[in-house]
Known about the structure:
Elements: H1 4-11, E1 14-17, H2 22-33, E2 38-42, H3 45-49, E3 57-60, H4 69-73, E4 78-81, H5 92-110, E5 114-120, H6 129-142, E6 147-153, E7 156-157, H7 162-173, E8 176-179, E9 186-187, E10 190-191, H8 192-201, E11 212-215, E12 221-222, H9 223-233, E13 240-243, H10 249-255, H11 264-271, H12 283-288, H13 296-308, E14 336-344, H14 348-355, H15 368-380, E15 401-402, E16 405-411, E17 415-420, E18 426-436, E19 442-452, H16 454-488
Parallel strand pairs: 1-2, 1-4, 2-3, 4-5, 5-6, 6-11, 7-10, 8-13
Antiparallel strand pairs: 9-12, 14-19, 15-16, 16-17, 17-18, 18-19
Helix pairs in contact: 2-8, 5-6, 7-9, 9-13, 10-11, 14-16
Amino acid sequence: MSSTSSSAAHAGRCLVFGASGYIGSHLVPRLLAAGIPVRASSRNRASLERRGWDAAELVAADALAPESLDVALAGMDTAYYLIHSMGAGKDFGRLDLEAAANFAAAAERAGIKRIVYLGGLVPDDADSEHIVSRRDTGDALRRGKVAVTELRAGIIVGPGSAAFEVMRDLVYHLPVMITPRWVRAKSPPLALENLLTYLVRLPQIPEAEGRVFDAGGPQTLTYQQMMRILAEEGGKRPPIIIPVPVLSPKLSSYWLRLITAVPTNIARALIEGLKHDFSADDAELRRLVPQHLLGFREAVRAVFAAERNSEPVVARWIEGAFAVRDQRIDYAYYAKRASAAHETTASPAAVWSVLRELGGERGWFYLNGLWQLRETLDWLAGGPGRKHGRRHPTELRVGDRIDSWKVLGIEPERRLSLAFGMRAPGAGMMEFDLKPLAHGGTKLSMTAYWHPAGVWGLMYWYAFAPAHGVVFTGTVKEICRLAEARERRGEVARAD
């Protein structure tokens, strides 16, 4: 196509199924920028609403709930299928096939012209469930009557890519690695920018209909070579890597949870596939979609540049946000999290009237002694702990200090976002969410997000995990109890 407008017209209306996922969250704004009408779909519509995609239509749908697919697919020309079930645990292979079969049938009913499926490179001797499942998902989609274009990609080099983030965590957190032979396995890493170009252009090319394409970068490197480059670009000394023959990829997957914050099920599925060498026969794809392919070093530089150029402040927690990670490329992209929730008959206004008094003389509503102990430990470690207080006992504004926390975002009667301010190996946030219930009342949630700095950051998180469960549960219950009492006494005024 010779112009963006003609390409957009040929692409038609696109459904991005799995828009809240890693690739989908980057693809939607790219399609919108190309002038292509987009409907973004996720199991949880709220996860899409916070993205700021004002030009996109948003819809909730689940491939394992077939009745939800018809609405999502209605009126669309092209459907991007970007979901997988690795995070579901041991049964993800079966779930992937069931979801693909449901989607293929619904796409046929809706009259979709083409499905674009993002799979993974498949070596001839593939036997790991992750690789086999991605291949079989494409087969399941092709059993329907809608033409499928499948793009099989290797490691994606981009912020949030699970394989990239595992390597980032390993490189920046371990000066010495004793690893199995998989560090010498080979793969052609592909820059996120190049992948997005392929995904946007392929539906516009009639020759791509019903075909399977390999997608790789211009280099084939070992994981050891990639980790060395990653260290150099981050200004770190490359780790000393000692390969040994006795550790299998499967065994490696068990200790990875102690090293990386990438969700364990996903990291395990990825690692178990690393015993293979991967290659990409991408000559035909390059012919159809010519572009400059970034080498691994260029791609890493692009990742770090994008992070450093991102918004310096955020109003709420967003996975991987550089601002939440204290602008540190060596802090984990993925967060550990702990949460508790409680439902109350009190209105959001009543719950907010209590919540906005958090900290200072009022305290933290539950087990204040533990909060004070944590701040004392911070003070002893040279941090800012024990600086109790706040600007006003009931009023809050962005930038206020609440003891050792800083207010990052306020949505009265909906959300309060606080940045962690004590000394610790990592960075984090805490958020309180208020959701009105259909039958009246409020559901109050309290969630902590922690982006660890290496092994010490993970150990810090696990050390405090038992206390989180007790303190958070007690805190939300106490806030709700106080809100109910305040509402009974008629002491609630709606927030401005």
